[in-house]
Amino acid sequence: MAASNKEIEAAHSLLKKTWNSKPVNVDRCYELLNKLKVALASTSFFPTSNESVDKTHSYMIRDILEIGVQISVLKDDTSSFERYMAQLKCYYFDFKDVLPPSSYEYQLLGLNLLYLLAQNKVADFHTELELLPPIEIIKNIYISHPVSLEQWLMEGSYNKVFLAKDNVPAESYTYFINKLLHTIRKEIAACMEKAYERISIDEATRILFLTSSKELKDFIVKEKLQWSSEGNFLKFSSKANVTEHVNRIPAEKLAERAIETGGLRKLRKAKGNAVAFGSERSKTHVLLHPLVAQNEETRKLVTDIINVLIALESTEKLDKKLLENNEIKKHLTPRYPRDVILVFGGRALELEFVNPEAVVEAYDHRLERWKNVNISDPCGPRDHHQVVVHEDNVYIIGGHQGPFNVFNSCRKFNLKTKIWSEISPMIEKRAFMAAVGTMKYVYAIGGYNGSWRVKTVERYDTVLNQWSLVENMHERRSGAGAAVLDNKIYVVGGFRDLNYLNSAECYSPESNQWTLISAMSKPRSSPSVVAYQNQIYAIGGLCCNGLMASAERFDTELGKWFPIEDEMKEKKCGAAAIVLDAKIFVIGGWNGVGGLRTVEIWSNKTRKWVLGSRLLKRRTGCAACVACKVPNIEEFTFNERESVVEDVLVKRMNGVHFNSQEDTDSGQTSTIHGANIDRNVLSAVGGINNNQQMAHNLDEWLDVD
């Protein structure tokens, strides 16, 4: 017997009341829902066209279907979920002009997108996405959440997917996210087997995004993986075949851009695509990426390269057949950089009769090598000057050639044309000054004019080719350091009237005013100063107690200085400093005896100073800058890049191994079995492996003076 309208309406009211009660009795709701479905089957409540829509009945049916979708999730019933959503979409799309919008519409449409993603139905995911208004895709959290997940999956950024579990827009999303994460873990497990013969338990736990070794053990048992433990390591069975029961994370199309994970170096791929490559985790994740996973030939190539990288990081002797594999050598070769460090001037000794160094050096941070570039200023070199980059020009500001020949002249080098030219001279002669660039201006700050130290500041208009004075600093300073942060100029330390300064001040171009800020914990003359990750760093310098290796940072929000926990390998002052690739480079300097070739590198990731590749020339009082997006980059870098890798492989195949030992400019030169090893060649491999500590350690104990 068919149910009456009143009976159906009463059953709907009871279902809704039970569903909205707290806590929800899911089994009771499921029972009521099934009875209501049977009753509805004998009615004409379901419309067949827009003309036949009864608003009251259709509103009630939509409400029942929305409850059904959510109950199916709680009951782990994906088949019912699919059926309810298929029916519900008719009310959302076909009858949208008849029915008022539902408050659950985008929540459940987003849940359906997440379901399609978890079920590996990426084509259907994009089909459903095209039905939605663009503004909702961007701004509606229920839709943008699964869209972001899909994007991260295509990028191979699985860490972001796992973090998203704790930031779901609705509780129901957790169900399908867990299914998605489990699929990813199984795929990672399959790739671990292909990438390694064994791996530490701690590393396997981290790579699989688990929190403990117990979770790892439970995962192995649940998935019936043929893994065995050997002490603190997991060993993979060569016969194991996890992939036959794994749902892959596919890509509807190949990624069109390089995928960055943690700033790692990249593996070049045919057709101009790229995948992040380097650390233990990315070695596994690169095998998961669609660029690799969808092509068996590429997957084999990447697996071979992973094995080579593992061998390079070990002490094993490499197979000589590796040299015959041009494909692997090509992919081990670092790319050309986009940006380079340029170092100008400085001198080997702080003596009047020693001329400044004319050679200009460029640093290729992909190969970790310095190169002599033929762009020396025809008017001669300088020392204790400054350089500032603006657009395609490098500006050389002031400096001197001996204490009695202080310059107010300035030069300009165009990176495109490779032409030097004179620009307007400063109003005042300056050496040992600070200089920075903001917008279209170059600022020259303080310094020594050949007679006394000054507190004047002037700025150069790069458009008008004109210098003009701005407000004076509070103190006269030479040997100060300066950096720009949030369009304000910070000047710290220096020397005045036989006093080493710890004072610091800040200049606002908008108000043309200097403001004193908190003093450093220690006086520092000729420190290296940079803006790095939203703070001002003052590194090294000279004080009344001598040279310094310590550093401190200024937090502009807190208005306080904080010490850096690690000290540089060598005490120094008068070094140049720049920021590149999220690292601080302190270049050259004076160690109390003469100019240095050493380069020290700081990263907030490692929070340690490491030695980088040495300069070709010893330099104190040099100036450095980062030239970005350099045209004709080949002129500033090494062209025979594959031969660098081949040289490294040959040395490793000959059984040459290295043990790190401390080596500064004042230390001993090290040799291995009497062999003269090219340190830069070896550090190139460190870069390829993204093992920065390895790269810089190699440079610590190999000196090729």
UniProtKB/TrEMBL annotation:
The keyword Glycoprotein does not apply. Residues 79-251 form the PCI domain. GO terms for biological process: proteasome-mediated ubiquitin-dependent protein catabolic process. The keyword Ubl conjugation does not apply. Keywords: Kelch repeat, Proteasome. GO terms for cellular component: cytosol; nucleus; proteasome regulatory particle, lid subcomplex. It holds the Pfam family Kelch_1. PANTHER family: 26S PROTEASOME NON-ATPASE REGULATORY SUBUNIT 8. Belongs to the proteasome subunit S14 family. Component of the 19S proteasome regulatory particle complex. The 26S proteasome consists of a 20S core particle (CP) and two 19S regulatory subunits (RP). The regulatory particle is made of a lid composed of 9 subunits including PSMD8, a base containing 6 ATPases and few additional components. Interacts with DDI2. Interacts with TASOR. This is 26S proteasome non-ATPase regulatory subunit 8. It comes from Leptotrombidium deliense.
